[in-house]
Amino acid sequence: xxxxxxxxxxxxxxxxxxxxxxxxxxxxxxxxxxxxxxxxxxxxxxxxxxxxxxxxxxxxxxxxxxxxxxxxxxxxxxxxxxxxxxxxxxxxxxxxxxxxxxxxxxxxxxxxxxxxxxxxxxxxxxxxxxxxxxxxxxxxxxxxxxxxxxxxxxxxxxxxxxxxxxxxxxxxxxxxxxxxxxxxxxxxxxxxxxxxxxxxxxxxxxxxxxxxxxxxxxxxxxxxxxxxxxxxxxxxxxxxxxxxxxxxxxxxxxxx
Length: 256
Known about the structure:
By secondary structure, the chain is of the alpha/beta class. The protein folds into two domains: about 5-185 and about 225-250, NAD(P)-binding Rossmann-like Domain (Rossmann fold, 3-Layer(aba) Sandwich), CATH 3.40.50.720; about 190-220, no CATH class. Helices cover about 45% and strands about 15% of the residues. The chain is built from eight helices and seven strands. Helix 1 packs parallel to helix 2 (about 45-55), helix 1 packs across helix 8 (about 225-235) and helix 3 (about 70-85) runs parallel beside helix 4. The longest helix is centred in the middle third of the chain and has 29 residues, at about 105-135.
C-alpha cells in the first residue's frame, strides 16, 4: 500500500503493459527508480511482468483496465493511487490493429482502433492529469507510430496514430503551465506480436518481414521494444522538463 512518507518517489502508469513495448517501458521505468503500475486488459500478463520487476528489487503493481471505459479507467487510476501513490508519469501505450484495405474495412474495425488509441489516451490523460496538476509536476508520453505518416491497409491505425500526435501537442499547450510536459514517441518497425500479425496478414514469414524492414532502415536493423523504452524513459525523466509537444520518431533513420 502507498506510504505518504515516500512522496518523492515517482509513480508511473503504463497502459498496454502486458507484453511487447509496454512491458519493456515498464521494466525500464522501474529500473530508473519509479514505482510502476502496469495496466492492460490482460491482467495476468501484467502480473508476470510486475512479478519480474519486484523480483529485481523494484516496486510494481498490476491491474486490469479497459481504456475505452471511463468508469473502469477512473477505478484503475484510484487503485494505483491507493497501492503506489499519485501518478507523476503516464505512458499511453495501449493499442490494437484491425488492418484492412479501405473498401474492405468495416465500421467496427474503424471504431475499435479509434476507441483504444484515441479515446483510451483521452480518458487516461483526463483522469491522471488531476493528480499531476495537483502536484505541479507530470510527464505524459503517448505512443504514436511511423504509420501516422500513412500506411497501406491501415487507414484506421494511421489516422489514430496521427491523432495521437495532435492530441499530444494540444495537451502540451494546456498542461504546461501546471508543470506537466506531454510528448509522443513514434516507433518505426519494432519486433512485437503486433508486427508479427502484420507479416501474417501480408503473407510473409516474420523473418522475411523483418529483413525487408531492416533493409529500409538507415541503421540496417529492426527495432526492439527496449529501443522505444529508452526514448520514453528520457521523456519521462525530470531532465526533459524543457521538452514538450514533441514527436520523437524512433525508426532507425531520418523520417520526413
